[in-house]
Amino acid sequence: MSDIGSLFEKIVAGKIPSYKVYEDDLVFAFLDINPLAPGHTLVIPKKKYETLDKVPDETAAAIGKVLPRLARAIMKATECKDYNILQNNGTVAHQFVPHVHFHIIPRPNAKAGLGLSW
Ligand code: AMP
Fold this sequence. Notes:
The chain is an alpha+beta fold. The protein has helices at about 5-10, 55-80; strands at about 20-25, 25-30, 40-45, 85, 100-105. Strands 1-2-3-5-4 form a five-stranded antiparallel sheet, covered by helices on one side.
C-alpha cells in the first residue's frame, strides 16, 4: 500500500471507514481489519508518531489511561479473560503501519490468535 504512512490518520479523520471502539481528544481505537481473534482492537494516538519513543507525555498518559478501560470493555464484550497487549516499533519488530498502535488481542483459547507466538 503506497500511502500506508497516512492510513491511520485517514481512519481518524473518517476518510477511510473503520469500526470505532473509542475516541477522546487524543486517542482513537478501532477494530483491526484482520483480527487475530474477535475483538482485536487497535489503540492509537490521533496524531501520528511513528514509534512509541516519539510520543509526548500527555498523549502517552492518555493512552495509558484508556488501555485498561478498553481491555475491560473488550474482555467483557468477548466474554474472554485472557488477552495480549502488543506494540511493535520498526520494521524489524514487525511494525507494518508507521503510526503508533497498541493491539489489544483477546485470547479466547489456546488456538485463537495463531499468528501470535513466542
Ligand atoms: P503492525 O504490524 O503492528 O503494524 O499492525 C498493523 C495492523 O493494522 C495489522 O494488525 C492490520 O491488520 C491492521 N490494519 C491495517 N489496515 C487496517 C485498516 N484499514 N483498518 C483496521 N486495521 C488495519
